[in-house]
Design brief:
The strands form nine sheets. This protein has a four-stranded antiparallel sheet with strand order 3-2-1-34. Strands 4-5-6-7 form a four-stranded antiparallel sheet. A four-stranded antiparallel sheet has the order 8-9-10-11, with helices on one face. By secondary structure, the protein is α+β, with helices and mostly antiparallel strands. It is 16% helix and 35% strand. The N terminus is likely disordered. It contains ten helices and 34 strands. It starts with a helix and ends in a 7-residue tail after the last helix.
Length: 545
């Protein structure tokens, strides 16, 4: 019989001393110092597999036995509240979307001798009976600001060029490295929250970098003094963040809970939470949030309803660090000014991966079946369909000038090809064949080449180099045979290319962008993404949006 937490707590506290000791350990155990990643993989993979199957009839286990099982097999990584620690949150909502096909049989076979199927059924029942929730009170309680903004140094505390730094996400052991883009030396390496993902955002002057983790944490880091400025947990599962063009606001998009959270970029104090649902009340997870800088607005992609949202933040008033607006509406708090009723564009289907033209008047969106549409943000209507096959990965697209035309290039998650599109006529120019499907591509205004990977195929070790003039492959490069090689990023001047060897242990491989010769390496723990400050700030040709 399933019981809620309050009922369970009453039953346990009325029991004997041994049970009470178990509960005390369960409740007060916080943020276990280090979770061995192998244990995490074993526990989560098997638990996902069991949670995805129907509930089987099994003898009811005593509450204390279930807590002991959780304590032994889950607590170290997921903490007492299931809200993550050294790994992702254990959410009943997440398990509901898993299928047993996503879990390999080898994982289950290797763990069967340690945990029985019956025990995992009991753990699954416990997790599903105590769904986790996150609200504004939880969020505000999580906020911390260890550094006072007014006390931060005015200049970088190192000799490297602050605009040619790379911020590298190392997912192999949840660390972030700051690398000098001239000497290719690591300036600092520090621990991050679990599952920090790509799409780091920088303040307009390049001083601060903001990153979010899959389990809902948003962090502000000072690249001058090399320290965390502020930290807040905005949800249980976060898609990504965006920063306003003036550097004053951060918008975070969540999948759990289904909300948008507006933050003050100067210390991450929460400003406003916006529930995500359509006019009929149907909720949606947030697929991604974007800054449409020339429109002074945030654009929101939704996973579960066919709508596109635009939220204006152009207040035409003076910003003060107290969070108060002065001007036409003097004294009104910021939360009343930003994040009001969004401008909604109704779509014919759900689009949840986007790319914008340079004017931010048009957005290209791909459906869950791989169909691409061009949407006008001004008229709130579809302009045209694009005849692309497979699953274009628009979020990794780039654009560049060719023969007086702005060209967009996009990789494909299903087919081994790059598609090149004229962004004026919206016509497909050419499709270039690659060894296999890939995820990332990059270029730079000072190079004649586009670099693309095939990391989703058996040719995961192959980089293809494409001439931007002829739109043809001029070289295929294998730097480490048999190893996953992807995510290219250029130095600010375009002279060098940094390539991720996405293994653990892995490397950053530095290649001369002209001679295409390897010049240096840096050891890393699965460097999944790296971001050059100058390229991200200037939004140079060939850089990611």
């Amino acid at each position: 019989m399933m019981v809620g937490w309050a009922t369970m707590r009453g039953m346990i506290l009325s029991a004997g001393n041994n049970t009470v000791r178990i509960v005390l350990r369960f409740v007060f155990f916080k943020w276990y110092s280090v979770c061995q990643f192998a244990i995490y993989q074993f526990n989560c993979a098997v638990l996902f597999s069991m949670l995805s199957s129907p509930l089987n009839a099994a003898p009811a286990a005593g509450t204390s036995e279930i807590l002991q099982l959780y304590d032994q097999h889950c607590l170290r990584c997921h903490t007492n509240s299931q809200l993550s620690g050294a790994s992702s949150s254990l959410l009943s909502e997440s398990f509901g979307r898993q299928t047993s096909a996503t879990i390999s049989n080898s994982v289950w076979s290797s763990s069967a001798s340690q945990v029985s199927e019956e025990q995992f059924i009991q753990l699954r029942s416990y997790v599903q009976s105590t769904p986790s929730r996150w609200n504004d009170l939880d969020m505000r309680a999580s906020h911390r600001q260890p550094a006072v903004l007014s006390s931060l140094p005015a200049k970088p505390q190192y000799s490297a060029n602050p605009l040619n730094l790379f911020v590298v996400v190392e997912s192999g052991d949840d660390h972030i490295s700051v690398v000098d883009g001239d000497s290719f030396q690591t300036i600092i390496r520090f621990a991050s929250h679990y599952g920090v993902h790509g799409g780091l955002k920088f303040s307009p002057d390049g001083r601060f970098v903001y990153f979010s983790s899959r389990d809902g944490w948003v962090t502000q880091y000072d690249l001058y003094s090399l320290q965390v400025v502020a930290d807040i947990r905005v949800g249980l599962n976060t898609s990504n963040i965006a920063i306003s063009d003036d550097g004053n606001l951060i918008l975070a998009g969540n999948t759990q809970p289904q909300t948008l959270v507006l933050l003050d970029a100067h210390g991450l104090a929460p400003i406003k939470t916006i529930a995500v649902h359509d006019a009929a009340g149907h909720p949606s997870r947030v697929s991604a949030v974007y800054d449409a800088s020339s429109r002074h607005s945030f654009v929101v992609a939704l996973k579960d309803i066919p709508e596109l949202w635009e939220i204006n933040y152009d207040l035409k008033n003076k910003w003060t660090k107290s969070g108060i607006i002065h001007g036409q509406q003097m004294g009104r708090p910021l939360e009343q000014q930003v994040g009001g009723t969004p401008r909604v564009t109704s779509l014919s289907t759900i689009l949840d991966d986007f790319y914008f033209d340079s004017s931010y008047k048009h957005v290209l969106g791909v459906s869950q079946s791989g169909k691409v549409q061009v949407i006008s943000l001004d008229s709130h209507s579809k302009v045209t369909d694009l005849p692309l096959n497979g699953m274009p990965h628009l979020g990794a697209s780039i654009s560049f000038e060719r023969d007086g035309h702005l060209i967009m290039a996009t990789p494909n998650l299903r087919n081994g090809q790059l598609s090149f599109i004229d962004m004026h006529s919206w016509q497909l120019i050419k499709e270039v064949e690659l060894p296999g499907p890939g995820f990332f591509m990059r270029s730079h205004e000072n190079t004649p080449y586009v670099w693309a990977d095939s990391m989703l195929s058996t040719h995961k070790d192959t980089l293809s180099i494409i001439d931007k003039r002829s739109l043809s492959v001029v070289q295929q490069m294998v730097l480490r045979p048999g190893k996953t090689t992807a995510h290219v990023e250029f130095t600010g001047d375009g002279r060098y290319v940094l390539v991720s060897l996405m293994e653990n242990p892995g490397e950053l491989i530095i290649v001369d962008a002209k001679s295409l010769h390897e010049v240096a390496t840096l050891p890393m723990a699965k460097p999944t993404g790296k971001y050059n400050v100058f390229n991200k700030l200037k939004r140079l040709e060939g850089a990611s949006q």
